[in-house]
Write a structure and sequence with these properties.
With about 675 residues, the chain is an all-alpha fold. The chain has 30 helices and 2 strands. The protein has helices at about 1-30, 40-65, 95-100, 105-120, 125-135, 135-140, 150-175, 175-205, 230-250, 255-275, 275-300, 300-320, 325-335, 340-355, 365-370, 390-395, 400-420, 425-440, 450-470, 485-505, 510-525, 525-540, 545-560, 560-575, 580-590, 595-610, 615-625, 630-635, 640-650, 655-665; strands at about 210, 215.
């Protein structure tokens, strides 16, 4: 019976898998770029189910025709290093070199190695092993795993396995032209969704929320589409614009060309509204190549390249002329002040971190906690990622694994270039969009978000599947996969399902949630509960300076011995030397311990690190220190010293007021 109905069952299983892959591609960007806490385990569950259905579809298809193989020879020359035979990608089961060069291995290893690296970082190791592999991790944690944030690494491991499962499922689905076009249309629909939401926000003059459902951070300049950060929306729009451009060149039906052309224009306009310099530069570079490739047969290579350059330059000039904010963002590039930008400073600060953790990295998902010890830029800006894909990977996974991943990517790009004659315009446009995303993420971190990474992985799998199919010019190429794909897909589905359960179990242990719970306990006036939460959080996140500082605050409110509070505040300063609040807590402890001179020094450092010298801060300093130490503790600025002198004079502290006035004259003789 299965032999009779297996083909129909395989088609239905593939359709369900196709729907799940499309669902993940649409929901990941729609749900605020996929940053909602419970979307990661949900995405892993969807990916595991899609991969399992694709594997079952392959099994059912094989049972329906157990003795049939694809015997036709490829219409083009055989690929170098591959044997032709009964497998759809020109390999025999004994050709292990062919398997290693197959799309399954090239694409699978590209996503499997990060997952394997994260899994190895979670293994508990003796202190001697940790010290030999990562001395800095041993100094922070001691015995245990290599990662410095176990819940964060579990979370990122789940994402990596979800991407692997989606890649394998899309690899099977993308081998058939009709289903690959459905997936590409779904990706274009995701880009159109961003354009539609951006248009709604523009009409409503809304810069404080996303469709009124998700409030943007206070003081934020406004998101784009469903993304909080405009740069990340730009990464998705680069991909979908490339796909739309490829489909525009491929379609011959006039109505379809009008619809696809309108979609492309809407996405390009929204991309310009992102004001992302990196995205616009990447889009202009890749757009030039794509336009030149489309006009090459009509105009010749040189003329087509000139037309491509001119078109890209004209679009950039129009964007600069019509968007004044874009011209202001380009000004630092022209006057050379870009080197002082926060992002550029982050790149420089990441290099010492990579040097300290070059073998095994800090741990996937531990970057935010560890990086505070290396920051030299604006301390009021929270840095979640390194804002550069290679730097992020080197910091979290280590240099050896990063070099391996980029080497695999280079081999895959080379092989795709060699098989470019097998690709239609839709796949070529998709490949152009993928290159634009890669170029953009050299200076950004959009691929760390599921809203960008999920569509990118699916698009890459489609290009690989179409480039490696056995019959390059047939409408319905052979869809049978090698046995290696079945093993990989089954293992990925099982592992991703288990990782989804793991992500659910650690979803309440992420560092951001731990800090929120401790702060809420402190606000409720329950320092005992805050200290209990701190004891749990510090075991999970030993490298986070904010956790240590919250523990010091709880100990201070509970009246713990000064050495306990100082130990925690000093720990916070070790992990974040520029932490103003840690100096402030130390000043309180030293003042209560009868060491006012040292308290004055710590308070002065707190002001130097960013505490505002307003009336509340001056009143707090007066409560901590005797009057004669206040001129030394407050910022050495003439206006602050003048205000302090007047304040002390009104309170009757004449000698201290004279000291502050003298300090103001020294700092500003004109007074």
């Amino acid at each position: 019976m299965l032999a009779h109905h297996g083909g129909r069952l395989a088609r239905w299983l593939d359709r369900f898998a196709l729907g799940l892959v499309l669902l993940s591609c649409l929901l990941s960007p729609a749900l605020v770029g996929g940053v909602l806490p419970l979307w990661t385990p949900a995405l892993a569950g969807i990916a595991a189910l899609a991969c399992a259905l694709a594997a079952l579809g392959h099994w059912a298809e094989g049972r329906s025709r157990p003795n049939k193989t694809v015997a036709e020879a490829p219409s083009g020359p055989p690929d170098a290093g591959h044997k032709t035979g009964g497998h759809p990608w020109g390999m025999t089961p004994a050709s292990w070199s062919g398997y290693l060069r197959s799309p399954i291995c090239l694409l699978g290893m590209l996503f499997a190695w990060p997952a394997l690296g994260a899994a190895l970082q979670l293994l508990p190791l003796p202190v001697a092993w940790v010290a030999a592999i990562s001395p800095q991790a041993a100094s922070v944690r001691g015995a245990g795993p290599l990662t410095l944030d176990v819940p964060g690494t579990c979370w990122e491991l789940t994402r990596s396995l979800a991407l692997l499962a989606l890649a394998l499922a899309a690899l099977r689905l993308g081998a058939e032209r009709r289903r690959s076009r459905w997936l590409l249309r779904g990706l274009i629909l995701g880009g159109l969704l961003q354009s539609a939401v951006a248009a709604i926000h523009l009409l409503q003059n809304n810069t404080t929320s996303i469709l009124g459902l998700y409030a943007l951070p206070r003081g934020w300049e406004g998101g784009l589409g469903t993304f909080v950060n405009r740069n990340h929306a730009a990464s998705l729009l680069l991909l979908t614009s490339g796909i739309a451009a490829g489909m525009l060149l491929e379609h011959r039906d006039r109505r379809w060309r009008v619809l696809v052309g309108a979609a492309l224009c809407a996405q390009i306009i929204t991309l310009a509204q992102s004001l992302s310099r990196g995205a616009l530069a990447a889009g202009a570079a890749v757009g030039t190549v794509l336009i030149a490739a489309g006009l090459r047969q009509r105009l010749g290579r040189a003329a087509a390249l000139l037309v491509g350059l001119g078109t890209s330059a004209l679009l950039l000039l129009l964007a600069v002329a019509l968007l004044p904010d874009l011209s202001q963002r380009l000004q630092p590039v022209l006057d050379g002040s870009l080197a002082h930008y926060q992002k550029v400073q982050v790149w420089r600060d990441v290099l010492p971190l990579i040097a300290d953790f070059w073998i095994a990295g800090t741990g996937r998902g531990a970057f935010q906690s560890v990086f505070t010890a290396y920051r030299t830029g604006d301390q009021d800006v929270t840095v979640l990622y390194a804002a550069s894909l290679p730097l992020q990977q080197a910091a979290e996974l280590g240099l050896p694994l990063t070099v391996l991943l980029w080497s695999l990517g280079a081999v895959l790009i080379r092989d795709l270039w060699q098989r470019r004659h097998r690709l239609g315009w839709s796949e070529r446009g998709t490949a152009a969009g993928l290159m634009a995303v890669l170029l953009h993420n050299l200076v950004d971190f959009g691929l760390e978000l599921p809203g960008v990474s999920v569509p990118t992985v699916v698009a890459l799998a489609i290009v690989v599947a179409r480039a490696y199919r056995r019959e390059p010019f047939r409408t319905e190429p052979a869809r049978r996969m090698p046995r290696l794909w079945v093993v990989a897909a089954s293992g990925a589905a099982i592992a991703t399902g288990g990782a989804a359960l793991l992500a659910l179990s650690v979803s309440h242990q992420l560092v951001a949630l731990d800090k929120v719970r401790i702060r809420q306990a402190l606000r409720r006036g329950d320092p005992a509960q805050a200290e209990r939460l701190y004891d749990e959080a510090v075991r999970r996140h030993p490298a986070d300076a904010q956790v240590a500082l919250l523990g010091a605050s709880a100990a201070l409110l509970l009246g713990r011995p000064p050495e306990v509070v100082l130990r925690r505040s000093n720990r916070a300063l070790e992990l974040h030397p520029a932490n103003a609040q840690a100096h402030r807590v130390a000043a309180w402890v030293l003042s209560r311990s009868g060491r006012p001179a040292q308290a004055a020094l710590e308070l002065r450092l707190a002001f130097a690190r960013g505490i505002m010298a307003d009336e509340a801060a001056i009143s707090e300093a007066e409560a901590l220190l005797p009057p004669h130490l206040l001129p030394d503790a407050l910022p050495q600025h003439p206006d602050v010293q003048r205000r302090l002198a007047a304040r002390l004079a009104r309170m009757g502290h004449t000698e201290a007021a004279m000291k502050a006035a003298h300090r103001a004259v020294v700092l500003d003789p004109r007074w």
